[in-house]
Amino acid sequence: MSKLKAFATSTPPAAAAQPMPIPMPVLRVPMLNRERQLFAYEIVFHREPGDEQTLLQSVLSTITDGALTRLVRGNRAFLNLPVELLPEDSDVLLHQPRLGIVLQTHVATDAPLMKRLQQMAERGCQLMLDAADLDLDGSLAIESLLHLVQFVRLDTSLLTPEVLQQRTEQLHARGIWVIAGQVNDHATCQRCMELPLQAIQGRYLLIPQPMAVPVLTANRLSMLRLMRTLQETNPGPVELGNIIRDDAVLSYKLLSCVNSAYFALPRQLNSVQQAAIFFGVTRMRNWIDTMALCSMDDRPPELLRAALIRAQMCEKLAIGMPNTQKEMAFTVGLFSLLDTLMCAPMEFLLAHLRLVPEISDALTGRGGPLAPLLEQILAWEAGKLTSLNAQPQRIQRMATIYLEATQWADQVYASADTKPEG
Predict the structure, then answer these.
(1) What pLDDT does 337 receive?
(2) Which CATH code, of 3.30.565.10, 3.20.20.10, 3.20.20.450, 3.90.1200.10, is assigned to 33-206?
(3) pTM
């Protein structure tokens, strides 16, 4: 592969040249505070029956070699795995003050395990009890567990609004931070905003808010016009530079991203035209769409990262397809959350964009060659890829693609979030 071709695949040459260990299948699930900023990640590990020892060794290796820290970018994170698997003599979590463990309620009746948890808590390990809909009153065992944990997660899908409020207020009064889990619609999210919660977690983040009449701000209409121009005119390098020439912020972010250390370019690119010649027009058109969406500072950063992850995963899954479809796959992933980002129905937005049928059909669920790519990603996000419906090789491939995509998305978002000097 030529150096230019290596750059065009969005993979940094340094990473491509070094053999990488087989990544562990994991998914990071964000918890957001009431300002819609990241509070913590939950790290969910893919498990198969009977692989507990393999899982344990992989988890410990992931922690000690720093891979997990890179995945969560140094933020607070909770590992969702059976605490019984952790070896008694392992202090690995005690050296990672930002890493904690999700506990299930059954540990309260395991005396030896409770003793270990007591020791871990005393040494600063963060513990979260996944209480679901369990009544937290009246059990001495649960009471002992509540004395150990700093966080309790309640399942909003199993509790009435009245019970959710009551339990949240009781835990808050005790000095325990409460996480609302399984918040899968915006009405529930809005109710949670009125409670003394530390964070909210659920699928609500990825679904559009219901709007009686879609209303786009001038900034978003301008963004749609830019995206439509990029799709319709098939610009060359010079035309591409002219299209965004007057948008100084967008041009700055675009060049900051492509010139970042992540890509390790042999020389600095000083214009959009140079970048389009170096990377190719289609690649740069995708990058402009990416930078435009990342400029939406009124949307949760984790939502923007999710769109970037999907874009990169779609493109990687399209390897082996014709080049034109591979290029379209990136757009499918990126635009798959466009309705949520823009707070408008997908059909309404597509009417403004006039995308090619392969893209619009995938985005609206009508099928086409790119729809299966997006379906795979949605299944991965929902944790529905298991040995029952997927071969181990397919799960491993998805794990590799997902981890590469998160690294890419985090780097791109960090570059896009850079503010021009002066």
Answers:
(1) 96
(2) 3.20.20.450
(3) 0.89
